[in-house]
Amino acid sequence: MTFLRCLATSSLLLLATVDLAHAEEPVHWQVVNQIRDEGFHRSQVMATVQHLTDTIGPRLTGSPASHQAQEWTRQQLASWGLEAAQLEAYEFGHGWTMERASLHLVSPRRAPLTAFPKAWTPGTDGPVQGPLLAITLESEEDLEEHRGKLAGKILLLLDDDPTKGPDGPPFRRWDGSELEESLTFEVPSDRAGAWRKRMQKRYHFAEILNTFLAEEGVLAVLDNSSRAYGIVRTGAGGSYGMPDRHRGVPSLTLMQEHYNLLQRLLEDDPAVEVELEVATTFHEQDPMAYNTVADLPGSDLADEIVLLGGHLDSWHLGTGATDNAAACAVMMEAMRILQAIDAKPRRTIRIGLWSGEEQGLLGSRQHVAQRLADRPESQDEEQLAMPERLRDTTWPLQLKPDHDNFSVYFNLDNGGGKIRGIWSQENAAVVPIFEAWLTPFADLGASTVSINNTSGTDHLAFDSVGLPGFQFIQDPMDYRARTHHTQLDTLDYVVREDLMQAAVIVASFAYHAAMRDEKMPRKPLPREPPAEEPPAEKEHKGNLDEAAAEH
Q: Which of 283, 304, 334 is the last residue of a domain?
């Protein structure tokens, strides 16, 4: 047999194997028809996302708005006929709300400046005015150099790259070549161990810095946004909501153009003065945070769980629309669709709407620890002084009885773009299954199944304990360039048709996973790595380094 004939025969055998894999994974076409009909002709997804954003607003973990959103979603899911709608509680700390903030240039001329406080920083207790000082405070040596010299001053923290342009197109959808690139396997990197060490060092220094600023009598601290064109992107500061941490002084992030203005003014004349007023409230009466869960009960395999979800918490700028009310509305709509068509799944389909994702996947990790698997508590005092998300991984993995009954988790959290496919998290056995399930949605632009990992969101809480957890591939839209953790994260940047498409696909995936004869295939359980090699969590290039750093 010639080489070409052998090659052709091998190719035909490969294609036959792929076709056989598709043929062995059933697609419930009649139910798909019902799902599409309900999802496209009687959708309620926009009403849901509008209530979460316009009515409730930003949902910082532990805040009254966060609690309101969890209770509202519980009631809404119950009103649709879902069962066991409840709130799962876990210990968090202090909530925080920004009431108002203003910043003005006073000298050498008067002008308003755009800035927003970091979460969990204190207010000013009325207007304060003081001279501006450009300064570097990145080490304990820096603090000692300036000790006794900063009372009554407002500090402008120096930025190595004060003028940051956009890091990509302001708006885009995946094209065919980019999706095709995602099909090529990327060998996992070893970045997670180094990242954790950097975050541990930063966490330790933040407490020293906050204490120093307060003791020195600094009025406030200003830093630079990581986005240009008037977009302010900020996150946590102060105590991070932890009761035993120092709150420091008011800390605000400036619009980049105004940061650069102040820096230029200081270079020309050091006698620059600014005035600011920040009003914030710490909510200490309820130290708990909550997840919302509800069930569509199964039948003969009701003890086994198919779970879908996303994080309901947000940062305090904007109204948390693309991060992540839109995805939560999609997941709620998927459950509503299944209930509306009177779906009869074999397994129980559960929804989980998590809090604390922005602080380190807290809600989903707590759900996993309470129900599925946990790890032994560290015995190292230095490790115990840090939040759990920053501690080194402990072993052995401790599985709970429900670990065996868990089938799969599907997550949505990369903005408001429509679904284009799904990341398989290096689980080769699910690739032909997902390809079959996407067959009915090729006309909606969803057909890609990537073998690669993706990171930075709640599916990792499940993947890290050996359970199938997956994140859908979504169109990037303007998520990274404009809305991610910025004041522009509002309902204006949510696309109705994209959310409807996503809800239909999620509902179908959940139904098909609940109807399989077997649970979803699993990867091998995580194993303790050699002592000299830190555990690696792959960060795919399609995700956000900023999000991973905050998690």
A: 283
